[in-house]
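pasting for the record
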Amino acid sequence: MSTTALPILSTVTPRKREPTPLGSVGVKQKTPRPPYTPQPIDARPYSDEIAQWMQVLRTVPLLELGARADALRRQKVGGDVVSYIVDRNINYTNLCVTDCKFCAFYRRPKDDEAYVLSFEEIGQKIDEAKALGGVQILMQGGHNPYLPLDWYLELLRFIKERHPIHVHGFSASEIEMISKVSKLPIDEIFVQLKQAGLDSMPGAGAEILVDAVRDFIAPRKIDSQKWIEIHEAAHAAGLHTTATMMYGVGEVWEDRLEHILKLRASQTRSLARGKGHYTAFITWSFQPLHTEMEEWDVPLGTGVDYLTTTAVSRLILDNFDNVQVSYVTQGPKMAQIALRFGANDFGSLMIEENVVSAAGIDFIMPEQEICRLIDSAGFTPKRRYQDYTLVDQHPQGCPCCTWRGSLGDQGI
């Protein structure tokens, strides 16, 4: 199978060399920091709860907050198991027209470093991941207007036929771009992607789900309501998704709390429908290097800030089972501590990662080290699949992919 069947791809500049900091839009383009005035609490949705949680943040010591979150973790997931997944991030394109000010990864269409991976390159990456025990690929890329829906469908069929593996792919904003290019509604996009082989959807692109903040850092990106609507459409199609929050972009605590409360409400609606839902929540702090925001002088998240955010997330998101650490941005030691502040998952082995590392952060580590860190923090490490089924409890393969394989001949 060849991507040359789609002539529009010839308009995309192939990758000529490995990405460099000098290729980053943030290095080439400096944007002054715009003013940001947060909304008062009483003008926000969930204003009463935001006020209550602000009082908690002002009055409850950090260690007590962590103890409360740790107790809820034990209640939700039980035992001392900390899970992780062996997977690979495949960034199929870095070409993007959304120009998020916090991103060091993307390249504009005429940039020499812009690329679209071929199906064969993607297949090779999958085979390399599977040889290392990988059970999933995370497919994410820029918002590329040159890729039609057929490209994504053919890619998914190619993967399932030639390199079968769980595909956790395409953020909400990528889905919205596919919908724009194809001129099809979001629910129809999910029907077709699922039939072709999409198994679940990542929670990237949430940043802060407050439009005043999104207008500040990513004015061309989908708004907060659209992000939630797309995830709930994925859930309605029977797909599980994850949810994220990138903080430290100049927002205030009231913005973070509004974000988390919106996620809890969205999960409530999806659980009531009885189909897909959010499987996990992941938060991390903004990394400014090589981005347009590098010189904005926004206060960077501290370790205390990360632990507080993790604990509060666990306590508010009482209808989420799993909270994942971000060792890639916070480092291994802080990730260990977060396991006592409500987190129960160590994330991904991340055989490959290109987005955060473009901002100069690179804490990728081998599986043996992940297991050592989990064990030395007082927990038992266990491999998992995307739906949080443990590998040793389902050794025949990912339950989602086993189900799909048994119905593949019916086109489901």
